[in-house]
## 1
Amino acid sequence: ETRKKICTMTEVSTPSVQDDKMTLTLFVMPGSQYSGKVIAALDSREIPHYVSFVDFNAKTRKLPSGNTMVPELLVEYKQEQDGEDGEKREPFILADSDAILKWLDETFDTKLCPTEKSWELTRRASSNFLGGAVLYYNWVNDVGYQRTMRKAIVKGMIPSFVPTFVSNPFADWQLGPERTKHKSKTAKMMGVTEAELEDEPTIRAKLKAELLFFQALFESEDQMYLMPGMDKPSGVDCSVYVMLERLVSNGGMGDVPLDPSIPEFRQETSDELTAMWKWYDHMREHHPIQFKGKRPSKN
């Protein structure tokens, strides 16, 4: 079946098309940082798209590819838009947020990552220490986990009349295998051993150092975005932005209510990361992440 085909960037042709010639449907989990990254990118370039929510439970999650990782972008051409050779263009799926951003650049000339450096920094924010820190403080660290993933499961799956001495252990039992899996993944992304994950103060200091690295991209006080010379968010902006949403935002991930994992971190670093928090507030004001209100028509 054509919808089951997942394309790599080397397999996808990028014809000169406009958004009125295709339909883009992004499959996400509400509040997912990698889903939010793609939504921020699409909205920053005003590219029309639908957003379809999938189940939190991987066993019941339905994605076009049959896999379980979000986001996935389903690209469907309008019926009248055949290829130059007259053949019908088949729908295809792009998985992985970076692959989606790359396709957007090549198809719509979005200039989300116009240089190799911007691609390197986008990948660094998503796949290395900062991305790992989000997993760490949502899944591995006990305090962050209790604030976020456990709380989300208790609110979403367990009736409110059930006492916490019952609901919390149930959530821990449900999420235990995922926490174990995320521990090894987190250590690999952060470049530390699993034993070092037990030292939370050191992890927190490393997180501050990583954000200081990104803050150093600002060359002047009036620079609006992380990559100099950009008048719109780059892939770097979208990537760092969504990670901070999961770590410190008291308003949730865009329009999805989620509790932050380390809300106190912003106040702790207010002096050292002044420019970073100023930029973050600018992103929240001018580029709010909108998951809701974009569902595909049922017709």
## 2
Amino acid sequence: MSSKTAIAGIDHSIIGVRDLEAARETYLKLGFTVTRRGRHIGWGTANYCIMFGPDYLEILGIVDPTQFDAGLNDFIRIREGFLKLVLRSDDADMTARHLKAAGFDMQPVQDLARLLEMPEGDVKPAFKLMHPKDGNLPGFSGFLCQHLTPDLVWRPEWMAHENGAKAVHAYVILHQDPESLAAVYESFFQEPVVRQPGRLIVETGGGKLVFIHPDQMDQLYPGLEWVGPLEDGTILAASIAVEDTDRTEAVLSCNGVGHLRHGDGSILVQPGNTHGIALAFQAL
């Protein structure tokens, strides 16, 4: 965490799906441990999470179409896949002060809670959320989150995965001009960025954001079958750090999940097998 910003890297991503229970089964077959179901209080959405040591994946679906869904229904009418990225703040007030001083226009801090269905009865994880106003963080679709009750969701039994997954190493995001984003992300995170031809690598303090031009997709992920949008800010892929890709491949093969093994040892699971996201497993 930067002492100037209280931003502690990437907290989680949100995968929007049409059938929440089917998506749960999909991610179990991919070798992940999936939490018990959570339900957002006052909203029509529910989730399952895949917890790692520093971060997690959130699988989000609609369980009551008559209630507020934060734009999920509009998204899944078009496709499934990454809906949002969420950055972590260890102190929402400090982060808000940093971002205001750096010239970022943010919405007021909001409170959110959800009910997590446990055998001993429901528990209530609670959060503080901060949303950038439109246009303040180009190429980024998401918000910031401070966990008020982290022990309720980071449970040891949920962080051990059959496929050996340890963390999300990076998220890959499409953008027509990655270089143009350099200054704004250096200011936001107070971290240096790395410029490469057609790419910009942003250090967040915990995980990377990798912005690439769409013509870099096949170079980064040979054989990728992508039928999703190519617009700026489209979240294409997650790179999952694992203990051993041989172990990961054995789990995928045993469970009948199609995948590609690349020459560098990494494994690619196509969006058609993941509810709309590219998953790359790497031994890191």
## 3
Amino acid sequence: MSEQSVAEYRIEDLAHLSGATVRTIRAYQDRGLLPKPERRGRSNVYGAAHLTRLRQIADLLDRGYTLASIKELLEAWDTGRGLGGVLGLVAEVQGPWTDEEAARITRAELVAAFGGVPDERAVAEAVELGVLEPIPGRDDEFLVPSPQELAVAVELSAAGVPLPAISGHLRELRGQVEHIAARFLEFTTEHVFGRYLGQRPPTDAAAAEAAALVRRLRPLAQQTVDAELARAMRTFATRHLHRHLTEDTAADTASEQRPVVLPVDTIRAVQNLVGRENTAAFIAAATEREVQARVLDALAPRPQGSR
């Protein structure tokens, strides 16, 4: 039966037109996501409303909603509250957070950019990190979501930084930046967006106003990080250079070293993890990472009233 004829479908027809399986349709009915069909004798008859609802569910699933959230949204729709504002807010949040445009690079261009020596392990790690994305059907070409990020890696490699060190630095940096992003979201949710998100789902008017605020506030996160990173780099780079240019740097460094007493169990655990010869370096690296994390905590905005 075609969609253009009388809008009455058997469950098999509905499954074919909607792209859902018969089993999925029945599961949606059981969960209250899809109205029950009309019963005619021994047959169940579905209509255009069922097809529309299945397409709505598929669209919301593609946008990342869970079935529980979709049920709330559809119940709001059924009571006369539209989804346009909510979907507009979702589109605004899921839209690009940068003006940078993705590019493509061939495998040959990639090898040339990194010194002319193929390194499949480095390529695999770049794919894992999302710096490169495979293109289906094109084994010799990759999508580059952030050409700037790849350009940084190229410059670091040309300066002599090993590729494993570059990828390790990116992993560590990404974790720290994600921490800052989470803190910024907590901050703006408490002080800005909380009043719009109190009702689930929000009204069309509230969602539209929240979407407008997302557009206004979107650049602030990057601007804040850029400004604070510039300040920190100026401070630490100046201090670092001064320390290395001072005549008695070696003496100063030696005088700054102090023995630290650690629990025996801690030393043993680290030795079992990385070996006796790497114990001191591991403890120093772990300590430096913790200090950096606390510096980032101090730079990130904290919600008022938190400790």
